[in-house]
Amino acid sequence: MERAKIGVIGCGRISPQYLDNLAQRLQFCLDVVACADIIREAAERRAEEYGIPKVCSVDELLADPEVEIAVNLTVPAAHYEVSMAALAAGKHVYTEKPLAVTREEGKTLIETARSKGLLIGGAPDTFLGAGLQTCRKLIDEGWVGKPISAQAIIATGVHVERYHKIGVGPMFDMGPYYVTALVALLGPVVRATGSAQIPFPTKFNPDTSRPDFGQPFTVDTPTNVSGVLDFESGAVGVVTTTCEVLGYKPRLEIYGSEGILTCNDPNMFGGPVYIERRGGERREVAPTHYWNDRNRGLGVADMAYAIRNGRPMRASGDLMVHVHDIMHAIHDASREGVHVALQSRVDRPEPFPAGFKPDIFA
Questions:
Q1: What is the pLDDT of residues 93-119, one digit of tens each?
Q2: Which of 68, 171, 244, 320 has the greatest count of CB atoms below 10 A from its CB?
Q3: Are residues 166 and 270 in the same domain?
Q4: What's the structural domain count of the chain?
Q5: What's the pTM value of the predicted model, to 2 decimals?
């Protein structure tokens, strides 16, 4: 396959996690030809580190006819504006989460891309890794029987101020990994309810290196959130996200009529997977797929193959919109005291074929 030409917009802290793959491990299908950042020195640093031939402004990158896919790694507040500009320039767009801050902006991006015949999608793409692809294979082959229930828990002790602002918090920051995994494994959600709380309305800056150490700040978004999800398949899932407890305690389990599947951490591409069958012992399952490391950017590779082969991409904008809709519905349900019907729908992304070759995207 002819390699897809990539332009990276945003060269901050998360960019090395992408460029380790886009510019190195995925070179067989991707070619990073340009990078841009509002701080030019940041782009120059990444270009030197990863051998990217062109450093330029965002406008210059979007005007470059060689760039096919714009990878948007800017801050969340800029995602909508940058992605819209890229679509206007005729580029396919892959963006770090979220697709946009509001439901309306996300829908506008999807509609704009569709009207122009372009693809848009983005993170998280951890569900494409070996861990969750192994889980998907086990479910599809009937190892747990009929999926009845699911439980997803992400419990952290993050107390920095930026994590407590509107649009962030544990549900919108870490929740997408878990909700995306649930949709990839069990299919779309049709309605949701939930409870969203702010246990501590005021907190104190814990960073001893900052001049405002110990100073109070106001918590603007719920930090202890639980949702109940009704899936189109008939399964029911519970998602709990909190940053008010000690430590990092990830958990994702699928409970079926014939077994229990304990998935890897959905924030990771690999990790141990366990199955417990009726009448049997709990045992670890060997991975059935290849990508099991720090592989951010797999979704970009899949997008490249989707462009070349004229098929849907897996980490699609429609999936991002549905996940965002689910998380908002949980908060809406808590505020209004009702079940909330989802405004969106998406099919389960196609699984990767099992095997241990890196080139599995076709």
A1: 999 999 998 999 999 999 999 999 999
A2: 171
A3: yes
A4: 2
A5: 0.95
